[in-house]
Amino acid sequence: MNVWIPIALALGPAVGVPAPAKATFEVRHEVTVTAPEGAGKVRVWFAVPQDEPAQQVRDLKVEAPFPWRMETDSEGNKVLYLEAEKPKPGAIPVVTTFTVTRTEVRTALDPARAKPLSEEEKRKFEKFLQANQNVVIDDRIRALAGEIVGTETNSLRAARKIYDWVLDNVDYWVKDPQNKKASPVGSTEYCLTTKTGNCTDFHSLWTSLARAKGIPTRMVYGSFLKKELDGQDVDASYHCWPEFYVSGIGWIPHDVAVADIFRGGFEVTDANATLVRRTTADGYEGPSPDRVDYYFGNLEERRVVLSSGRDLTLNPKQQAGPVNALPKAYVEVDGKPLPEKEGWVRKLTYREKK
Q1: 142 — alpha (psi -120 to 50), left (phi > 0) or beta?
Q2: Dihedral angle at the C-alpha atoms of 289, 251, 205, 79, nearest 10 degrees?
Q3: What whole-number distance in Å separates Cα of residue 210 and Cα of residue 227?
Q4: Angle of helix 155-169 relative to helix 139-149, nearest 10 degrees?
Q5: Domains of the chain (ranges plus CATH)?
Q6: What is the pTM of this model?
Q7: Could you read off the pLDDT of 322-346 as tens digits, one per residue?
Q8: Number of Cβ atoms within 10 Å of the Cβ of 253
């Protein structure tokens, strides 16, 4: 993973502002692969916690029935890899445990510090300005990005305009789960067409619009370490959020998908209450304009980062095409992808250390 320094961590808290919050968690992350009858070679790439300034990982332990090793993928992510030749039919469990301390990320968002990208920065971040398989940059996206941003040339202000447009025009699917759905891949096209989706759909659309306006952007994948599921034997699911680069400031995170929950404008019912709560880090008590503003540039401490980037090339290289993303795991059997739920399941559980 490319190293970035959150501005809050680099500069320290502003005068009169409390220090960033911290939290420590003991995490169990496991994947169970079911080897099909007659399988020749099973290969497993499993996401592990990354080292970065906002996240310190300790005591990582691995339990697996076959030899394993740590590898690095095309985006610089550490990945746990193992393979099995002609395994017996049945479960192949892989378990990692670790302790992670997370620091809240706060960013000093001063548009006066924002500068145009230099030619060197354009070359350095070229891949963060290009399309991915499910992050489309076409004439429709370029035209829409132009309408949203207008004549604004300050990239920080332009990023906020795109953030606000997504809030105004897209609804998180959990608000109305009987009528709204997420795509299975995290798709710009799906989100723009249906005006709904999950975190990856939201952030694919935001990324497409931002890149179309020359704002380098990348996706980060991990999980919320939600208060509601603390100590529970329930998978935390995955979550993602973008980081965008502004010259003169650096890499800035945001989470317009979670911000959309706090934008309000929907009724909490028996059908959506649990989903809405579990889409956030610490529950939902109604609309909060402050939380909407907070999530542009800030992230609470109840998260863990497991990978970043899309269209990944793994190591050793997978036989199928680029891997869309690695929020959990990727499995191939005899060179063909083994889909989640059909051939493997992931579970991430945790307990906060007080």
Answers
A1: alpha
A2: -120
A3: 32
A4: 110
A5: 7-103+313-353 (2.60.40.2250), 111-297 (3.10.620.30)
A6: 0.93
A7: 999 999 999 999 999 999 999 999 9
A8: 22
Residue type (1 letter), 82? L
Contact 182, 174 (CB under 8 A): no
Cβ neighbours, 10 Å, residue 179: 8
Largest Cα–Cα separation, the chain: 64
Give the pairing type, strands 196-197 and 171-172.
Answer: parallel
Return the sign of the alpha-carbon dihedral for residues 290, 302, 107, 73: negative
d(CA 323, CA 338): 12
Q: Is the pLDDT of residue 276 over 80?
A: yes
Cα–Cα distance, 271 to 268 (Å, whole number): 8
**Preceding amide of 316 cis, omega within 30:** yes
Model pLDDT, residue 17:
56
For the stretch 121-174, pLDDT in tens is 999 999 999 999 999 999 999 999 999 999 999 999 999 999 999 999 999 999
